[in-house]
Amino acid sequence: MMRFQPGPEDRGNRLDVFLARCLKDLTRSQLQTLNRRGAILVGGVQEKAGYRIRGGEAIEVDPPAPNPPSMKPESIPLEVRYEDGDLAVIEKPAGMVVHPGAGNHRGTLVHALLARFGQLSDAGGSTRAGIVHRLDKDTSGLIIVARTNLAHHRLSTSFEQRDVRKTYKALVHGRPRTETGNIDLNIGRHPKVRTRMSARSEGGREAHSEYRTIEERRGFSLLEVRIRTGRTHQIRVHLASIGHPVVGDGVYGEKADALFRRKHWDLGRHFLHASDLEFPHPVTGSTMAFHSALPQDLKRLLEWLPV
User: Fold this and answer.
1) Is there a smaller number of Cβ atoms within 10 Å at the N or the C end of the chain?
2) pTM of the model
3) What domain range is 56 assigned to?
4) How many domains are contained in the chain?
5) From the candidates 136, 138, 257, 276, which is the catalytic residue?
6) Are residues 96 and 127 in the same domain?
């Protein structure tokens, strides 16, 4: 189920026109067919395709099932930090997409996992075999993989109940006003750019991040960020919302990123690394804890910046 919340700027637009802008792969005719089947709800109620957006209503779309791409295992090197019969913990490199999606049908983490382990949980579908949570393409670091459906369901419950502790390292522009802080801003789709997310005080889904400054460079700060929710682009959106975008983030820190590349260094990705992971084992219940050091590209940049 896909969820959308139009903003005031969408007021007056037809429902099918609004959704056609959000869902580029579906035509208005296809959307109208879905609507007649009851697959589109506005505030929990089926409306006509010509329904005029008021702004702020909750729209739910149950899209047609896509034809899944062929999931052939691919022999891609993986750094496996831990494995047993229930799960594995992997070091995902920057630049690797977690699972197939638009424009990414080969070379994903799932393809590599299938070659490395063979049998994985299929609770999330064949194209997301073993995937319990995700990291952005350009975020490196630790990720948990489920090898059985039982492990998948229990790990998912641990995430929902916030029993999983995820900590990241992020280099940001500037210096936060306080050494530690909490960011409690909801996150939802950007009202104008549908491929982006935005922080807001109302609407969207609740999101909580905590940060602590651990190092300072001239004009930059290295933060340790712990998230208590797992919204799309959460850390990047939250840090940008307080005026300290992540270095190398050309989406949420576009101007700062362009200036940084011109004056200093073209990192080729954002400076965000999933460094620490702690969670209860889905079968034994024992505490599992892992740490990942900064990869060389991030370490070199940090050491190059003047104190």
Assistant:
1) C
2) 0.78
3) 2-61
4) 3
5) 136
6) yes
